[in-house]
Amino acid sequence: MIYDGAMGSLIQDMSPTLEDFWGKENCSEVLNLSRPEMIRDIHKQYLAVGADVIETNTFGATNIVLGEFGLEDRVAEINHAAVKLAREAVAEFSTEKRPRFVAGSVGPTTKLPSLAHIRFDQMLASYVEQMKALLEAGIDVLLIETSQDILQTKIAVSAAFDAMAATGRRVPLQVQVTLQESGTMLLGTEINAALAILDVYDIDIVGLNCATGPREMNDAVRYLCHNTAKQISVLPNAGLPQNEGGRGVYKLTPQELADYHKRFIEEYGVHVVGGCCGTTPRHIDAVVKACQSLRPAVRNVKPRSEASSAYSSVPLEMDGQPVVVAEEMNTTTRVEHFRNLVREAKYDDILALSKKLVAEGSHMLDLCCAIVGEDEKGYITSILERVATRVPVMVSDAI
Prior knowledge:
By secondary structure, the chain is of the alpha/beta class. The protein is 41% helix and 14% strand. It folds into 2 domains: 8-291, TIM Barrel (Alpha-Beta Barrel); 324-395, no CATH class. The protein has helices at residues 8-13, 31-34, 36-48, 63-66, 75-93, 120-137, 150-167, 191-198, 214-227, 254-268, 281-291, 337-343, 347-359, 376-387, and strands at 53-55, 101-106, 141-147, 173-177, 205-209, 231-235, 242-244, 247-249, 272-273, 306-308, 313-315, 325-326, 364-367, 393-395. Helix 3 runs parallel beside helix 5 (75-93) and helix 9 (214-227) runs parallel beside helix 10 (254-268). The chain starts with 7 loop residues before the first helix and ends with a strand.
């Protein structure tokens, strides 16, 4: 299955005016209303070269992002318009033997919940609003993409299932994280941790997009293909951007992108390919010609047992060695030290204790904050906010 390429690059090439943006510079989602023929034409360019799936122009169409432009009350209108344009373009190219599809694009917003930029419930509600609009308008696939914060990713996944339940439509769910050149997500999450977290959800496709080109994605793509039974998607940039005259330029050629995708499909077993920033219809044309008839490698993936923090994962089958779970962070034991730390809200001391237990060789922390008649929920929430990002935590309760 071959996706389209960049939307933003082609919008820039068409040189929209500030008036086209309604004075809201760089709010590309406004163009769904102000310049619908422009967005429809971009979709058609990708469909004309053979793309199977086009993405809606809704990457930033949540009330979080639109609110920065004073458009928070037009979420449904903008998302509905974007899907309508995509569906019109698809209708021109679909045939009975070769249907084309529309993926509803959902971006990461401009907030990082792991850094307390936004509350969980606030981001969840924003995503549900956008996703309901996309589903109601008729998307075929729900695409959560360019995820930089694994907590934001989990919120978006939760919102996807809430929106599907609310609309009565279950469509394939595709989730793509973004790795920096360092090999981790923006806040430091390793690919093994991201997969351990996402693999337990009923997601249909997991993958990577944006930030880097296919060469930098190679190791992570191979890891995904070797460690999950889910379908894998890879939508890279046209290489790493080069700064030329203050403008980002992408230099990966169409043939180079096609060659990488051919390898991902034939050697690793990737099923979904396409492009992100800097890729053009020429890139997708080359990918279609090189990859359309390829058969993905067979992947024989064995189920894994893992626990994960926000940064790294721990296998629960460690070549015959035991997984060490520290029990010192449990308020129900006869030792009162931890219980007193919890009651006195000594969070720095609690964090220091968790680090000490990890340094001594613990793979997970057994955290229990059950104290009858007290604010157990408040206790454990406050502690998890400080500890859960550092090491896998096993939450237990007193019965």
